[in-house]
Amino acid sequence: MSVIPPLDLTQQFQTISAEVNEAVLTVLASGQYINGPRVQQFEQAFAAYIGTSEAIACNSGTDALYLALRAYDIGAGDEVITTPFTFIASAETISQAQATPVFVDIDPATFNLDLAQVEAAITPRTRAIIPVHLFGQPVDMTRLMAIAQAHNLIVIEDSAQAAGAEWNGQRVGSIGQVGCFSFFPTKNLGACGDGGAVTTSDPAIAARIRALREHGSRTRYYHDEIGLTSRLDAVQAAILQVKLRYLETWNEQRRAIAARYTELLRPIPGVIPPLPIPGGKPVWHQYTIRLSPLPAGTVGGEYRDRVRQSMQQQGVSSMIYYPLPLHLQKVYEPLGYGPGSFPITEQLCHEVLSLPMFPELTPEQQERVVYALKDSLNPQG
């Protein structure tokens, strides 16, 4: 019996291999491997797709967040509000900029920031908010931008998992002052290595980010500030340029798969499927369910792990994003949070399970996934 993986990049490559091979070989033959026309062409195409005037390609989604923070001079003494239920890069970059992450609990229906609590967390030291469009589900940006504007705060959209997602018809990454994207291979738009981009329609911010990614230099060998080396190489840009042409198709396939999952899971007690919120058009980077309510006498994380192991034994792989929230990570102990600080986040860390999700997933495979899940929830039948 074949194993259904959480993600299968080999199938994607098979469908576009001729185009990717040609694009890569063209770059290799050109001898222009860093910056150059292919990177610029991808930046222009990606900016047009997102709906901004500028896109600045860089080495990773992590660097994109850091560059955005630096571009707005956010640093020591400043606070930035974000979620504890995300990959560490969302908060780590705040710390790298020498600012302080301020965590806010999440909405159990969307896994995104609880916007009612965002406003309550604002202090005179708050400079920015980093909403994370987690699992490809957009944050309510209408409400968030109103909060930010009322308090004169910068909004840096962490769109690492949400390339192509929309809020009220506008693509994420074009609503706040800047958007930050990751092109890690597993993303909806993924390179064959690391990569990222910052999107903005502010030309001054774009120019500063371009300088920061090049050692703080606007003119070669002349350096205005301390920067870093954070470039997207031309080979990755060429691959991404090919893949960008397919992104909308792939995202539509993900939406169809998500709708099918939701229909199949609806009758199963103890499973809460994720649902789009009004105004949002998700891209389902992950299809993440909750195992809730828990059976009597079970412990959250242990029960979820047992279900996952049983599914694996039946040839169905799954993933856990994220088993330990950021406020309980050792590195953030100095912030003074502890167990109980964000009860919804802590509860969901014990309940979430991400099912296989990739555009090529077949209806038959989905039925296998759901059967294995149902069997694992009730092994006695």
TrEMBL record:
<dbReference type="InterPro" id="IPR000653">
    <property type="entry name" value="DegT/StrS_aminotransferase"/>
</dbReference>
<keyword id="KW-0032">Aminotransferase</keyword>
<feature type="modified residue" description="N6-(pyridoxal phosphate)lysine">
    <location>
        <position position="187"/>
    </location>
</feature>
<comment type="similarity">
    <text>Belongs to the DegT/DnrJ/EryC1 family.</text>
</comment>
<dbReference type="InterPro" id="IPR015424">
    <property type="entry name" value="PyrdxlP-dep_Trfase"/>
</dbReference>
<protein>
    <submittedName>
        <fullName>DegT/DnrJ/EryC1/StrS family aminotransferase</fullName>
    </submittedName>
</protein>
<dbReference type="InterPro" id="IPR015422">
    <property type="entry name" value="PyrdxlP-dep_Trfase_small"/>
</dbReference>
<keyword id="KW-0663">Pyridoxal phosphate</keyword>
<dbReference type="GO" id="GO:0008483">
    <property type="term" value="F:transaminase activity"/>
</dbReference>
<feature type="active site" description="Proton acceptor">
    <location>
        <position position="187"/>
    </location>
</feature>
<keyword id="KW-0808">Transferase</keyword>
<dbReference type="InterPro" id="IPR015421">
    <property type="entry name" value="PyrdxlP-dep_Trfase_major"/>
</dbReference>
<dbReference type="GO" id="GO:0000271">
    <property type="term" value="P:polysaccharide biosynthetic process"/>
</dbReference>
<dbReference type="GO" id="GO:0030170">
    <property type="term" value="F:pyridoxal phosphate binding"/>
</dbReference>
<dbReference type="Pfam" id="PF01041">
    <property type="entry name" value="DegT_DnrJ_EryC1"/>
</dbReference>
